[in-house]
Amino acid sequence: MNKTALITGATSGIGKATAIELAKENFNLILCGRRQQRLDDLKTELSKITDVHTLTFDVRHKDEVKQALESLPEAFQQIDILINNAGNAHGLDPIQDGSTEDWDAMLDINVKGLLYVSKQIMPQMIERGNGHIINIGSTAGKEVYPKGNVYCASKHAVDAITQGMRIDLNGTGVKVGGINPGLVETEFSEVRFKGNSEKATKVYQGFEPLKPEDIADIIKFVVTRPYHVNIADLIVMCTAQASSTIVDKK
Ligand code: NDP
Ligand code: 8X3
């Protein structure tokens, strides 16, 4: 029987690329996000090769998360792999100038959203004694960079939650791992800079950043290891990047 993977944030960037990569590997997919049209389009494309179900919800709202996950048709109720990917940075400001709305968004989406989704799915994995949770952290969860303050805090929290999940789920048969990318060219900076494409494009100029497909390829590798192998933590940067602040730009 094909395994089922649920991907949050599948409408764009890393999540979308992962959906495409896992479809090619014959995983059945539950694709989540807020933008319904994008989910519908991706479903149309990927249904040609695998079974796809979409769920439209905002990870910030725990009742919506619960309702959406409880609505799954029988064929999609067993979730073998959970990829907690939904998230973004909002703003890039010194902390003293930061917007409380941006802080709320990052902590509510990147941290609490990940917890709400996991809370719904962990029990069935524990009951079966089998499952795999992958949390998408960031290099921003391993170090702090200027003006990154709350985004870095949210990704440090993801790193801590990943470690905590692995400890608490030890012995249940559920694997937990973190993947922490550096600079990946997606809609990430468009969102961070609130639609300012010029600013967003500049982030990735003068060097070759990671592509979402690079991370998707690694996720595919991680989820296709034998059961006894758990890739617990990965940091992935492009060759031009040495740390959050050291990037060889020509
Ligand atoms: P994108 O902006 O391209 O994708 C973000 C995804 O998250 C979208 O599918 C979006 O879907 C979803 N999302 C955002 N907010 C919500 C919400 N409130 N409820 C449900 N879904 C939401 O960015 P990336 O692909 O780059 O980001 C994916 C993950 O990778 C994030 O966790 C990010 O922090 C992390 N990351 C990114 C890096 C990068 O350089 N790009 C590097 C390191 C980590 P929709 O808007 O339809 O809801
Ligand atoms: C995304 C990587 O360095 O833009 O998490 O914060 S960075």
From TrEMBL:
Gene3D superfamilies: NAD(P)-binding Rossmann-like Domain. Keywords: Oxidoreductase. Belongs to the short-chain dehydrogenases/reductases (SDR) family. This is NAD(P)-dependent oxidoreductase.
